[in-house]
Amino acid sequence: MKQARVFRLSNKTVQSRSDRRLRMGCALERATNRCRSVTVVTLPGERALTIRQRILRMLREGDYIAKEISGRLGIKEKEVYEHLPHVEKSLGTGQSLICEPARCLECGFVFKKRRRFTSPGKCPVCRSESITDPVYGVRERD
Fold first, then answer.
1. CB of 65 closer than 8 Å to CB of 133
2. What end-to-end distance do the CA atoms of the chain give, in Å?
3. Distance (Å, rounded) from C-alpha 106 to C-alpha 125?
């Protein structure tokens, strides 16, 4: 019977190599991908904030699409879509998350009733895949 090896990674003790890959693999992969392809811009004092707090700070500054948020924060676009519902819930009573809906570039159809944060795949009217991304921002409630 093999004895489990113990590893120490960033103040976490992990029992075996496969366990380490499961727990730390995604974080290590994201870190190496960031270094190769994305230049992460951080402001002084921003490192102490969580990703959701940094997304919220960006949305208070202006309106952004998910690709711009992911590029600036150095995370995947899919992760931005996962964080947006939580950012919406964490807003105070005087603020709300505004989503300018996606629009078809071929026929001009606007996805007003869409509740998901992700961009739709096809237009229901003309079946075109040329669709603008939704734009997100934070506004004060009236």
1. yes
2. 67
3. 10
What's the pLDDT tens digit per position in 120-142? Answer: 889 999 999 999 999 999 988 76
Distance CA(67)–CA(120), nearest Å, equals 15
Bridge partner list, 124:
none
Instruction: Pull the structure tokens for residue 4.
Output: 């489990």
Question: Range with the lowest mean pLDDT among 29-33, 67-71, 123-127, 138-142?
Answer: 29-33
Longest dimension (CA), the chain: 67
- What type of residue sits at position 17? R
Which pair of tokens denotes residue 106?
């071929």
Residue 106 CA to residue 123 CA, distance in Å, equals 9
